[in-house]
Amino acid sequence: MKTLTSGEIAQYCDVNLRTVIRWLESGKLKGFKLPGRGNNRVLVSDFIEFLERHEMPIPEALKPEASPLILIVDDEMPVAKSIQRVARRAGFDTLIATGGFQAGMMLSQHAPRIMTLDLSMPGMDGYSVIEYTREQESQKGLKIIVISALDDSSLQRAMDLGADASLTKPFSNHDLTQLFEQFMQN
């Protein structure tokens, strides 16, 4: 378990070392003394809890790294779950949207790195989702993988609108995993 010294905490909080020692002595900040010289140490998790409790910002260096997020957009839940299993096995977090409108909401709330997209959905179809997404400045870095059972000309239309890759249903788990890994590196 990673620990921090009183001095490191003082630097993170931009306070005097004596202030950190007072937090420790008063029990506001949970810590322990090393045997021998008695230097203080604080578990990173305890320091983060202290910061949250006192509504102080968590330093970027201490924020836990989240797994990259993939948004799966498909109105057929068995297909969406299949894509989700492939993504999770490859180490990615996932969200599922069953329609275009829901996908738009999730894109703005969660900022995924990749979106898999079915073209044939009721209401807002996949083409409309691509057009909408490519118009959003905040989504410029989003990679779109179309996964559809439609013909080659339909897949080409999706690519022309701004999709980054396409796979036909039924898709190969291996090919999908390779695309995920390729797009996460870019």
Automatic annotation (TrEMBL):
Key words of the record: Phosphoprotein
Phosphoprotein among keywords: yes
GO biological process, one term: phosphorelay signal transduction system
InterPro entries cross-referenced by the UniProt entry: Bact_response_regulator, CheY-like_superfamily, DNA-bd_dom_put_sf, HTH_17, Sig_transdc_resp-reg_receiver
Pfam families: HTH_17, Response_reg
Keyword Phosphoprotein among record annotations: yes
Domain Response regulatory: 69-184
Record PTM 4-aspartylphosphate, positions in chain: 118
Domain of life: Bacteria
The name this protein goes by in its record: DNA binding domain-containing protein, excisionase family
